[in-house]
Amino acid sequence: MTMNTNGGRRRAAKPPTIHDVAREAGVSRGTVSRVLNGGHYVSPAARESVEAAISRTGYVVNRHARSLITGRSDSVAFLLTEPQERFFEDPNFNVLLRACTQSLADHDIPLLLMIAGTEAERRRITRYITAGHVDGVLLVSSHTGDPAADQLRDAGVPLVACGKPIGHTGKVSYVAADDRDGAHDMVRHLYASGRRRIATITGPLDTPGGIDRLAGYRQALAETGLEADERLVATGDYTRVGGEHAAERLLAAVPDMDALFVASDLMAQGALTALKRANRRVPEDIAVGGFDDSPAALATTPELTTIRQPWDRIASEMVRLLLAQIGGADTSAVILPTELVSRGTV
Amino acid sequence: MTMNTNGGRRRAAKPPTIHDVAREAGVSRGTVSRVLNGGHYVSPAARESVEAAISRTGYVVNRHARSLITGRSDSVAFLLTEPQERFFEDPNFNVLLRACTQSLADHDIPLLLMIAGTEAERRRITRYITAGHVDGVLLVSSHTGDPAADQLRDAGVPLVACGKPIGHTGKVSYVAADDRDGAHDMVRHLYASGRRRIATITGPLDTPGGIDRLAGYRQALAETGLEADERLVATGDYTRVGGEHAAERLLAAVPDMDALFVASDLMAQGALTALKRANRRVPEDIAVGGFDDSPAALATTPELTTIRQPWDRIASEMVRLLLAQIGGADTSAVILPTELVSRGTV
DNA sequence: TTCTCTACTGTGAACGTTCACAGAAAAGTG
DNA sequence: CACTTTTCTGTGAACGTTCACAGTAGAGAA
Fold first, then answer.
1. Distance B42 CA to C5 C1' (A)
2. In this model, does residue A326 exceed pLDDT 80?
3. How far is Cα A94 from Cα B95, in angstroms, rounded to an integer?
4. Rounded to whole angstroms, how far apart are CA atoms A305 and A268?
5. What is the pTM of this model?
6. Spatial distance between the Cα atoms of B233 and B61, rounded to a whole number of angstroms
7. Which of the nucleotides in strand D have any atom less than 7 Å away from a protein CB atom?
8. In principle, which of A241, A308, B64, B273 could form an S-S bond with A67, CB 3.0–4.6 Å?
9. Which nucleotide has the least CA–C1' distance to B20?
10. Which of B12, B73, B115 sits opposite A64 (nearest CB)?
11. CA quadruple A43, A46, A51, A52: dihedral positive or negative?
12. pLDDT per position as a tens digit, B177-210
């Protein structure tokens, strides 16, 4: 059965061009173009008649023609250089992605999502980007040694990273939450609840979140005069099972710990599983603090006390920095404060 | 401190054009263009010399110039018309998004992510799309009455939806998992484990997942000769708390239920919370089956027995259908089989 | 040989916009 | 009034590609 009335391909006749608008408005191409781009040096009468003609014809600028001559594409890449599994598990990416899309939409700039999981993909994408198909890149890759950042920077592509890029030779703009301060706050919070044997599960130590949250932990311990026992530190990998294993190691190494600061909610979720299996009551026997305020923090019982990262602001700052850089501004960095969200595990 | 060696904006001199390649290879623009586009009617010698010139110059085609003349943009929109909260909570979107990006990347087609949460955004995006800035749209909007689908279809934009679009007048291509069959399998599985009082928490009944999974549930009940008690059916909203509340209502209405089929893992997670609070042991007192095989299914204890939707295949089929439709093919639909993943809750 | 057909190649035009420039009108300025 | 400056408008060229077409060379057929 085939519907002949309106089969598959019926593209609207032909979209109106700037010529059509000019004719309709009784002005020249140039005037229409000026109205389209800010409208300087246009008489009120002309502008009005052009605007009327635009809405009458339903004209929309052809971005390809524009890009061809301006050299700008008026689009931005959101580049994820993570192995596949990370993307799924980490809710942060999703929040960030959404917020960036939103922020860019406010500027009428479309976001091109690119995921470079493998080396080949990375090459293809780098090639695409350096060819000038996007004006700039929002980069998400927490792991160190990612060659994409250096490569793009060297090619002169405007670039803003999410999280402090470590292990890079040159300057890269970035926006990050204050990991160190957030971790510090949480550990002080654990201390304030009366705990004195505070352990931690860190992220991978080649990520800024791994390094800085550990630094915040150590700083708080130093301030409060608690002993900095190395057995209190276990390294995780930001996954739930990683957190579970790390907690088991801690339980074996320091059975007397009465608090646990975990550098991500997902790992905290795993840690809670391990604690429950070991018959430790939370928060009675042991207090647990997470980091991220991800959906996972609400999935636990009791709900997880955690550190909220201001993802919306991180996203809008990333976009702001990137657009500024595209406009010619220098590289810069922004650090945003975190917030402690008190729930049931402390 | 300013680094003067290489400040902010230093864009590589000027990318090579097809002219440069032609000169370098000693042929004409036309020949280079033919090599670029399939390479028909090109002598082996010419092709070889062009390919050498391309890799020597590092030439990359300027897609804007190409699009300007071909009328195609060689890009595709991934359009999400969901209110904000859905996106965060539902891991399916993320999996699907990733898989679509991947599938498109295989064809060297970039994906433009667009999120239309509000009416104004929807209008802006529709305008953008109908202006021909993308060749087609991958649409994700499970709720009914979404005007975007009709609007885009009427504008002749190639379109493939994820999940059966309901409440639409005309034909829309779509790819979906076999919801009815999956639900049916799960309920038969519950029956096979000896349960005879099987309740269900459905999705919203204006979504295909809500409707079809309920239909599968009813079909299985009918086949096995179990009583179709209406008190056994509660409606949820695909959120964790929604599942929790629905389970509470069921516990009150039919205290003797011994199995529960929940139409999403997230709701199942909530349901498990409610069951635990009511001191029902899972799976001893009551068996629970979910749907989606989302990460949430692994976060519960015991881990959730669920129905896996083949997201990778759904994505690749969506992309295949869309590209075919862009190429002129008619609308069509694909239904893909699901798979029961047996874990700890049955 | 001559003609036809096929495989291949080069060239001008076009896509829809912005930009630089030139010129006209209006507005200040002396 | 004349002159300069500012505001405004129109026009040709250019961006880098593909497409249609014309043309060439070689192979095969008559």
1. 18
2. yes
3. 11
4. 10
5. 0.88
6. 57
7. 7-12, 14-21
8. B64
9. D16
10. B73
11. positive
12. 999 999 999 999 999 999 999 999 999 998 888 9
